[in-house]
Specification:
By secondary structure, the chain is α+β, with helices and mostly antiparallel strands. The protein is about 50% helix and about 10% strand.
């Protein structure tokens, strides 16, 4: 199951604009900072980062991705699913971006992903966040099943 987030982001940018996978906690970065409104209208969350704009999935995109990935038969997924609808923390967005980048551009899975997911879930229970954790688990499971 492939996702087409890069094309969705690219449609919001000027043709000559840079769009690269972020090496940090966002999904992409672009030098087209004027595109923030268009990216946000397309479901992304944007954060200025110096001369660049960091791009991450926004709430609407998270909900759309949840519909795209079927719920796995998994105990951790069911527990995390109870947190849907809550606000999404920056730590969750970083985990989600990591999982989405692996699906989109391939590469090795993060061997610590599940530990990070569980730690983030524990923190989210204390802070009232957790809205994207079930999606992170779904994508983790799908990426294990897909040959990349």
């Amino acid at each position: 199951m492939r996702i087409e987030l890069r094309e969705r982001a690219r449609r919001c940018l000027m043709p000559e604009a840079l769009l690269r996978a972020d090496r940090g906690e966002a999904l992409y970065v672009t030098d087209c900072v004027d595109a923030a409104s268009a990216l946000e209208a397309a479901g992304f969350r944007t954060t200025p980062r110096g001369a660049l704009l960091a791009i991450s999935p926004g709430r609407a995109m998270i909900e759309a991705l949840e519909r795209q990935y079927p719920p796995p038969d998994d105990a951790l997924y069911r527990q995390l699913g109870r947190l849907r609808g809550r606000p999404v923390s920056d730590a969750e967005l970083a985990l989600l971006a990591s999982a989405l980048k692996r699906l989109e551009i391939g590469g090795r899975a993060d061997p610590d992903f599940e530990r990070k997911l569980r730690q983030t879930a524990a923190a989210c229970l204390r802070t009232g966040n957790g809205g994207a954790l079930a999606l992170c688990r779904s994508i983790q499971i799908v990426s294990k099943e897909e040959p990349i």
